[in-house]
Amino acid sequence: MKKKLSIIGLLFILVFSMAACNSKSSSGDSKKGNEKTKLDIFSWWTGAGEEDGLKALIALFQEKYPDIPIENAAVAGGAGTNAKAVLASRMQGNDPPATFQVHGGAELNDGWVAAGKMEPLNDLYDEQGWNDKFPKELIDMVSKDGKIYSVPVDIHRGNVLWYNKKVFTDNGVEPPATFDEFFKVADQLKSKGVTPLALGDKEPWTATMLFEDILLGVLGPDDYGKLWTGELAFDDAKVKESAEIFKKMLGYINEDHSSRNWQDASQLVSNGEAAMNVMGDWAKGYFVNDLKLKVNEDFGYITTPGTDGYFMIITDTFGLPKGVKNPDDVKKFLGLLGSVEGQDVFNPLKGSIPARVDADPSIYDQYGKDTIEDFKTAKLAPSLAHGSAAPEGFVTKVNQAINIFVTQKDVDQFIGSLKQASAELK
Ligand code: GAL
Fold first, then answer.
1. How far is the CA of 78 from the centre of ligand 1 (A)?
2. What stretch of H or E contains 202?
3. Alpha-carbon torsion 256, 262, 267, 270, what sign?
4. DSSP state at residue 109
């Protein structure tokens, strides 16, 4: 009797759970029972200097669509250090987030689009009248074979050298525009007991950023671009020269660089322990929002040596993965993210400039205004460290080579590793 009962019980559970599954798979954007499918937004924007823009965007969405449940599914770790692995396992397990942060360029196109995991968004662009609202170069970065696959929320600049104003004034030095000037200033500061350059390469991408900015300064945007197409070899004399400069710069960094992340390194500049830091302009968001510093009073900015007129571009974008249960809700979120209103709540907080050409420049601080102006005429260069220039496999190998180089400083070995890694580019 007992056995019979438990078999009936088991059957009941089975039938019940099958019914639940069915209702889930047929729910679409509509309600299953009373519960709507959650719109989970996946990114790596958590904590200091990262999350303010996203939170403001989510709040705006909730105000406009109070019936759509939204979940901030961010995974901590600069440049997606941890998030990218979590995303990969969700995508492989056919459990995509409703939408996720992905860099325009190779990361999107050679990654998720090539793997057949993304829906094209041309209809959304037509519907929203977006085709002439984003710079053409940006639309190209999120397109493959004529189809557009994501919506850019921002444009970050990667070739920025931030400096502590007081430290510079007290030591009578000027922001360096060339490598020679950089080393002159660095020597002067070092002789006064100030750490010239802050680095926090606990996550190696920060050192990769420093190196890519040196490459851009030495090669210029055209030859820099040729590195990713295989037209310029990694053992070219100019790449070696860049590696030598990189090595020399590493002689001016804080000793505890490998235990700091990018925020910790920025802190060294803000508190005057170090004079300069090379970082993307999310650092401005951190300086202003979190550390309460003032642009052009507490800290200043200049393009990294040799890169005046060039723009190391990083764009955060969001798309529609295949197989999500609530595509219409996702499109509503993308619609807001790509709107002037959405971009204007997000970017002033994030440190970036708007991806749209018609957003309001007057709401940005002086750094934002200068960057919006620079973007109009600068020559663009895609960031390697942030996945735009080359596929993930190559970026991972470069990060490893750089991590070794930072401690061993062996130029020949480094160039050899880069050359070997470049097989991934074919
Ligand atoms: C980049 C991203 C930025 C910022 C940065 C630090 O990859 O594009 O928005 O979040 O990482 O985490």
1. 6
2. none
3. positive
4. I
Tell how far the Cα of 265 is from the centroid of ligand 1, in angstroms: 15
> Closest residue (by CA) to atom 1 of ligand 1?
79
Half-sphere exposure of 301 (CA within 13 A, CB side): 25
Of 230, 217, 234, 227, nearest to 176 (Cα)?
Answer: 217
Pick the residue whose CA is nearest to atom 7 on ligand 1. 79
**What residues of the chain score a pLDDT lower than 50?**
1-28, 30-31
Half-sphere exposure of 220 (CA within 13 A, CB side): 2
The CB of 203 under 6 Å from ligand 1? The reply is no
> Alpha-carbon distance 125 to 132, whole Å?
9
Is the distance from the beta carbon of residue 282 to the nearest atom of ligand 1 less than 6 Å? yes
What is the reported pLDDT for 34?
Answer: 59
- The tens digit of pLDDT for each residue in 317-327 reads 999 999 999 99
Q: What is the mean pLDDT of the chain?
A: 93
Q: Is 209 in the pocket of ligand 1 (CB under 6 A)?
A: no
What is the pLDDT at residue 6? 46
pLDDT at position 33: 52
Looking at residue 14, its pLDDT comes to 39
pLDDT value at residue 426: 75
Strands (E), 179-315: 195-198, 274-278, 299-303, 310-314
Residue 79 CA, ligand 1 centroid: distance in Å: 5
Give the list of residues 6+ apart from residue 196 with CB closer than 8 angstroms, or none.
185, 186, 189, 190, 252, 253, 274, 275, 276
Q: What is the dihedral of CA 386, 274, 179, 210, to 10 degrees?
A: -10
Q: Given this model, what pLDDT does residue 180 score? A: 98
Whole-angstrom distance, CA of residue 402 vs CA of residue 205: 9
CB atoms within 10 A of CB 308: 14
Compute the distance between CA of residue 360 and CA of residue 397 in angstroms, rounded to an integer: 40
Count the Cβ atoms, other than its own, within 10 Å of residue 90.
17
Predicted local distance difference test score (pLDDT) of residue 5: 40
pTM over cut 0.70: yes
Of all protein residues, the one whose alpha carbon is nearest to atom 5 of ligand 1 is 79
The response to whether residue 285 sits with its C-beta less than 6 Å from ligand 1 reads: no
Q: Which of 386, 388, 395 to mutate to test the pocket of ligand 1 (most atoms within 8 A of CB)?
A: 386
DSSP assignment string, 52-97: HHHHHHHHHHHHH-TTS-EEE----SGGGTTHHHHHHHHHHTT---
| Nearest atom of ligand 1 to the alpha carbon of 43 | 10
Which residue shows structure tokens 């020559």?
379
